[in-house]
Amino acid sequence: MHNGPKPLAACGSFATLAKKAGTLEALDRALRQTLPMPLREQVRFADLRHDRLVFLASTPAWASRLRLLQTQILASAHAIGACASAVKVKVVAADPATPQPSRLKSLSPTTATHLRVAAASFPDPELRAMFLALASAAETSAREPERTSRTDRASSDE
Predict the structure, then answer these.
(1) Domain locations in the chain?
(2) Residue 132: partners with Cβ closer than 8 Å, 6 or more residues away
């Protein structure tokens, strides 16, 4: 069994990944809809793995409450066509609010070049387009400091 990130080539096309994400999102909405209201807000459906429904809970208390409803959850899953025989709940702390940086860091022209080279190596046209868009953003952000410094110089000349 392999844990951790998979190589990009083993993940399939972007369209396949997007379809799987859509399926998981639909399962999340359908399964959580059957839960009582306070619990529904504190858990998320994460995956259907090896006939196990995997949920994420914000605290151990909410995880325990969800585990108590395992029979109801499995019945709901079967009613919507999901083949599952167990419920697994993982506790995942909510992401702390990260302060926004005062200024976004720009990407270098070298980064743009590497993104374009990487884009050329992808057979998936959607993935290639995303990398080219990133390269374009990197080139734009690399030019913005030039404009800012020219504007600063022009205003100091006045």
Answers:
(1) 13-91, 105-143
(2) 115, 116, 119
Report if pTM > 0.70.
no
For residues 42 and 59, the answer to whether their CB atoms sit within 8 Å is yes
Q: CB-based contacts of 111: which residues, under 8 Å, 6+ apart?
A: 135, 138
Structure tokens at 113: 């070049």
The full DSSP string for 49-104 is: ETTEEEEEESSHHHHHHHHHTHHHHHHHHHHTT---SEEEEEE-PPPPPPPPPSSP
According to CATH, the topology of domain 13-91 is GMP Synthetase; Chain A, domain 3 (3.30.300)
The residue count of the chain comes to: 158
Q: What is the predicted pLDDT for the residue at 156?
A: 47
Question: What is the residue whose two structure tokens read 């994420």?
Answer: 56
Residues of the chain where predicted confidence (pLDDT) is lower than 50:
146-158
